[in-house]
Amino acid sequence: MTNPExxxxxxxxxxxxxxxxxxVATVMFLERGFDNVSIREVADAADVSPTTVFxxxxxxEALVFDEDDEQRDRLVAAVRERPEGSxxxxxxxxxFSTEVKANFDEHGDDVTRVFMRFLNETPAxxxxxxxxxLRHEDALAAAIAEELGLSEPVAEIRVYARFxxxxxxxxxxSDDPLxxxxxGFRVLESGWDPVEERLAR
Length: 201
Known about the structure:
This protein is mainly α. It has helices at residues 9-32, 39-46, 50-56, 68-80, 88-107, 109-120, 123-134, 137-147, 155-172, 177-190, 192-199. Helix 4 runs parallel beside helix 8, helix 5 packs antiparallel against helix 10 (177-190) and helix 9 packs antiparallel against helix 10 (177-190). The N and C termini lie far apart (44 Å). The mean pLDDT is 90.
């Protein structure tokens, strides 16, 4: 696995400012509701100007998803830098499982579940999250095609990439996100027929 280049001082400062703004905004949204907090209020609370907020986040919904680009990069790296002998499907399964566990480890079970409920109960954020994950589709499909020695993604790769990324919406809405990850990738790995046979017994 390759290590990313260390960020310079300027980049570290920008990343820290971006995270601070997002963290402040998320707390305010959780306390008062997404629609009841303005960009100016977020800027004042984070001790920056509204212009600075918009320089980091093109729209209000993006304030809650400060790791959009990083998630895309980690997803692509999971495919390209998977261990020798690991399938692409297994590597992406491990990516989703790791992301879920990292959220619970960083924020705790209660806080994570409160945040997910807030996300799912706020239509603007739910829609933004769906579009955000689907923006990664081209990058994921291209990485898979490259790993398979193809010049561009074929239809099967694009269908697979869409299925995988749509799964995140089910994970967000699940009371047991890890089981949802496992169930989704079992279907992708083996197909629907074995599942139907098992459930019909």
